[in-house]
Amino acid sequence: MSAVAMLVFIVALFIVLLAAAAMLTWIERRLLAWWQDRYGPNRAGPFGLLQAVADVVKILLKEDWIPPLSDKGVFVIAPAIVAVTMLVAFAVVPFAPGLVIADLNIGLLFFLAMTGLAVYSVTFAGWASNNNYALLGSLRTAAQMISYEVFMGLSLVGVVILAGSFSLVDIVEAQRGMWYFVPQFVGLVVFFLAAIAETHRLPFDLPEAEQELVAGYHTEYSGMKFGLFFLGEYLGMVLSSAMIVTLFFGGWLGPAFLPPIVWFVLKVAFFLAVFLLLRAALPRPRYDQLMSYAWKFLLPLALLNALVTGAVVVAMSGEGAT
Amino acid sequence: MAAKESWLYRQLAVIGSQVKSMAGVFLHGFRKRETILYPEEKPYLAPRFRGRIILSRDPDGQERCVACYLCAVACPVDCIALEKTEDETGRWYPAWFRINFSRCIYCGYCEEACPTYAIQLTPDFEMSEYDRRNMVYEKEDLLISGTGKYPGYSFYRVSGLAIGGKDKGEAENEAPPIDVRGLMP
């Protein structure tokens, strides 16, 4: 792509992602309502499509309150971090052949690094708010996100072994024969659970468990700063779905009657719906259950998966035989 | 007696139950909606629904209210105010009658207290206003032309009270008055 085309693509992607994150709030409410025998927001515009616009206008006009005892600089910067890291992580996602901002040869690591950086957002927010609930919420978030990050990376080792590359484009191309959710089913399950915990979506939304922590780390936030946290959360959902599709479901690959980008969008939309269904169906686990499940079950499982995948690849290549 | 569940069985049961609840929630998408799309679709209101308060008239077309103040006394939020007056025949009626609907909690105590079935709650709740002062209803707003829930009932026709045109003992089912000081049985 030429520099101009790349610039256009980046701007277009930026707009599409922000619009998608805003529309996702409406889609989420409509889908939750659909699964709960209701209609959901259907008044603003056709099918309630303008609800997202109304919400954005409202949140922009809200009072933007900064608590007097807070650490103001950190308080302001925290919500920006999560939105920026999530947006930057999209740079390595291949949407279609050639339609990727940066095909880094360490694309997968870049994605993990960016989601890792998002932890700073919640810890800063909780610390700068100078509020008990915010601090407790951010402590939980930090522990949860760091724990789940450990095997989020480990669960992808199998994919990397099979594809022989960290580049996401190469990983998608390597799935031409078979999408990786078949040989890497365990990896998929572990990665999916880790992705839910990483974006702290329900059922793993302990950082903002309303019943215990008011609103967790963003208790003191209002106006568009609060909106940025939500933007980050919804972008995280889109990013997680995009990564699941890229790593396990063949990215843009699909029968030729639809263009690759459409396949990609359809697959991502499907996993977004699964995210929302999880929210609608499952209750939140206890905090100690969440942590012990991570360390005692998912971590060994991810390690085992990496071990078995490596062994099988070596055995198949015949190089291990003497 | 079942053996102690194995760890694997427990894990599978947990996963199975979660998948089952996800499927169950998903299938709810194909059920009938509970929501009533209100402005287009009106909800069913029972005949005894407690909504907008009205003052009814008796079958002769005269006000049923006898200005006894029992509704105003019964009202827990003091939203009813009225003043009694009398016409030349001795019939009591309210000179003015005012209900502040921004205070009214639609408890129905006024209707229960009313000895003449004059004040009644109706199945109507669509009375929102942009200006709070418009929530105060005067007598002309409250009075309806009909008899409401009790057709045929007229207080003065059954009560023993003497008013112009109807003396003691002339009401329905009323025996002629007895002279209690008389000696006859």
Number of helices of chain B: 5
Number of helices of chain A: 12
* Strand order, largest beta sheet of chain B: 2-3-5
Q: Based on DSSP secondary structure assignment, what is the total number of beta strands of chain A?
A: 0
Largest sheet of chain A: none
Order of helices and strands of chain A: HHHHHHHHHHHH
Element string of chain B (H = helix, E = strand): HEHEEHEEHH
State which percent range the strand residues of chain B make up.
Answer: 5-15%
Description:
The complex is a heterodimer of chains A (about 325) and B (about 180). Chain A is mainly α. Helices cover about 70% and strands about 0% of the residues of chain A. Chain A contains 12 helices and no strands. Chain A has helices spanning about 5-35, 50-60, 70-90, 105-130, 130-155, 155-165, 170-175, 185-200, 210-215, 225-250, 260-280, 285-315. In chain A, helix 5 packs parallel to helix 12 (about 285-315). The longest helix of chain A is centred in the first third of the chain and has 33 residues, at about 5-35. Chain A is globular, with a radius of gyration of 20 Å. Chain A starts with a helix and ends in a 5-residue tail after the last helix. With about 180 residues, chain B is of the alpha+beta class. Helix content of chain B is about 20%, strand content about 15%. Chain B contains 5 helices and 5 strands. Chain B has helices at about 5-25, 70-75, 110-115, 140, 155-160, and strands at about 55, 80-85, 90-100, 120, 135. In chain B, the strands form 2 sheets. Chain B has a 3-stranded antiparallel beta sheet. Chain B has a two-stranded antiparallel sheet with strand order 1-4. In chain B, a hairpin with a 5-residue loop joins strand 2 (about 80-85) and strand 3 (about 90-100). The termini of chain B are far apart. The model of chain B has no long low-confidence stretch (mean pLDDT about 90). The chains are: A mainly alpha (about 325), B alpha+beta (about 180). The interface of A and B includes residues 280 and 281 of A.
